[in-house]
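Title: Prediction job returns without error message
Component: structure pipeline
Severity: low
Priority: P3
Assignee: unassigned

Description:
Job completed but the reporter wants confirmation the result is attached to the right record. Sequence as submitted:
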Amino acid sequence: MLLGLVDYSFPPDPPREGPAGQGEPRRAGRQEVPGPPRTLIVADKFPPAVGGIETFARHLAAALPPDRVVVVAPPRADAAHHDAAAPFEVVRDRAAAVTTTGSGAALARIAATTGATTVWFPAATPRSLVAPVLRRAGVDWVVSSTHGHEFGWSWLPGGRSIVRAVARRADVVTYLTEVSLRRLRAVAAGPVRFEQLTGGVDVDRFRPGAGGACLRRHHGWGGRPIVVCVARLVTRKGQDALIRAWPAVLRRHPGALLLIVGHGPAAHRLRHLAHEVDVCADVCFTGAVPDEALPAYLDAADVFAMPSRAHALGLDREGLGVAALEAAATGLPVITGAAGEHPRWSAPARPAWSSTARTSPPSPPR
């Protein structure tokens, strides 16, 4: 899956005539830059920021030839060390995080000076609306990736217009599941090329036996049943539902531990909630965990749970969360919320679990 973007990011030879131009003239604004044509990745979310789209963008960027990739991402005070270690060039510019005429011009200048003829938007809506400006700078291939929020936006009149414009200004629009594809096709209402592209999982890292036993010993968790949730601490991810349910879990499984991995704006509220329902001794907040340590935290658990929900009037909903896929690769049963894309690749839960949850098919014994 990590190699999928290679097929979509470099245009075929000779260039195809497709929907992207929609009759727009493409002026040759690109400067002559030595070397092969490059792909500009416009990532409004990129490490060292932590999250699913950040991981998605970083891993796919690393799958492309490093001399043919330039990433433009928003400035961060803690980015210097990360960018220096990246195998590709990273340009920090606030234009990656906003959608205005000025940001389009700034991105066009970066595309021209780096010799980019292809642009990929890892999170397309609404940022790829600037595609026409980039085309006038010499870009002739635009790939726009969609996630969960496009599905939500598409049900509102204004949001639907934006998603349609994003789709029709791209050469390729990527989608997560067949459900999102059907909705995107209905909204685009035109000759748009769609290709499936999901986040990949490194199965050499995320596997049974990836260090969970050592982690249990280190923290003194012993043989306690552990449910882990790996996600940003935000309302949409549903960690509060797990905490509220934990007293009931403890009545059936005394000593069970809820392991909440991640950080975010809801951290203080969630800690207060754990105190309020009197489960502080049975809920462990790890905070942010280094990427290299994450496989062990998943391997230490018995179940992965992330009861995500639609948020902000349904506009903010889960896409195909990489953490759930990583947990499945580690051999864990996976419980997710019914909103978003997860139910499209999972099986219905037993009624005894939850009427709104889904679980992945049973894994081999661990």
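Comment from assignee: result matches the submitted record. DSSP finds 13 helices and 14 strands in the chain.
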